[in-house]
């Protein structure tokens, strides 16, 4: 009641609490953007990384990783000593039968889970030594994820889905439009930006998921069977997009697959059998 009375007394020219909050948000957005405007008034480039990427650095360095799950009284030893590396710009594939441990490993490469034993270094830093917050921020800024089941927001258009990852990564608002358009054009969906997921084919949805996963310019893209739900033609389209983004976006891709035909394009294939790599 007190609030209603106050509203009634408000002068028409005065700002209501909601409008004031909106104004404040607009000011904050403008301030955030201003941080990225150079002195001559031109839009600044994409926010620079604190530590620039060096071509031959190890993005991922996995050493002696094991993962055991406790299910009831039983211990399931899923990963049994994994060693691998991923460098900038590489396409690395994890191949193996269902249940061999590929997804378990991929989750750990993205900091979603931690090893029971061994260590994973991301750009030289051990993921195990990081706080939950640092892992979350790194995931949001430096890593992109693609899952089998496209993981798009069903009520948002392709454009809005891609925009979301820029919002999540705190990319300044004035850079969004050009980047979203660029990413959707890159995956061949420049003319489908307003479509919602249910108005697109499986292959198109997966391509939106790729655009979404790379929009914030991550260093590493982790993809769990990105072609599993697609027919061979659509799978080939997705792999074509991957090949293209390796060159144009300077990103490394680590993906799991069952499909022998797409292994040929990999820079390196790790074959997993029962929680270990065989050479
Ligand atoms: N949280 C968990 N608790 C217990 N067991 C688990 C857990 N996560 C995975 N596993 C077991 O680990 C094994 C490997 O699973 P994972 O999903 O990594 O295999 P995958 O190679 O990715 O299989 P697919 O190709 O079918 O996706 C499976 O036997 C699975 O049941």
From TrEMBL:
<dbReference type="InterPro" id="IPR027417">
    <property type="entry name" value="P-loop_NTPase"/>
</dbReference>
<feature type="compositionally biased region" description="Acidic residues">
    <location>
        <begin position="32"/>
        <end position="41"/>
    </location>
</feature>
<feature type="domain" description="ABC transporter">
    <location>
        <begin position="60"/>
        <end position="278"/>
    </location>
</feature>
<dbReference type="InterPro" id="IPR015854">
    <property type="entry name" value="ABC_transpr_LolD-like"/>
</dbReference>
<keyword id="KW-0547">Nucleotide-binding</keyword>
<dbReference type="InterPro" id="IPR003593">
    <property type="entry name" value="AAA+_ATPase"/>
</dbReference>
<keyword id="KW-0813">Transport</keyword>
<protein>
    <submittedName>
        <fullName>ABC transporter ATP-binding protein</fullName>
    </submittedName>
</protein>
<dbReference type="InterPro" id="IPR003439">
    <property type="entry name" value="ABC_transporter-like_ATP-bd"/>
</dbReference>
<keyword id="KW-0067">ATP-binding</keyword>
<feature type="region of interest" description="Disordered">
    <location>
        <begin position="1"/>
        <end position="43"/>
    </location>
</feature>
<dbReference type="InterPro" id="IPR017871">
    <property type="entry name" value="ABC_transporter-like_CS"/>
</dbReference>
<dbReference type="Pfam" id="PF00005">
    <property type="entry name" value="ABC_tran"/>
</dbReference>
<dbReference type="GO" id="GO:0005524">
    <property type="term" value="F:ATP binding"/>
</dbReference>
<dbReference type="InterPro" id="IPR017911">
    <property type="entry name" value="MacB-like_ATP-bd"/>
</dbReference>
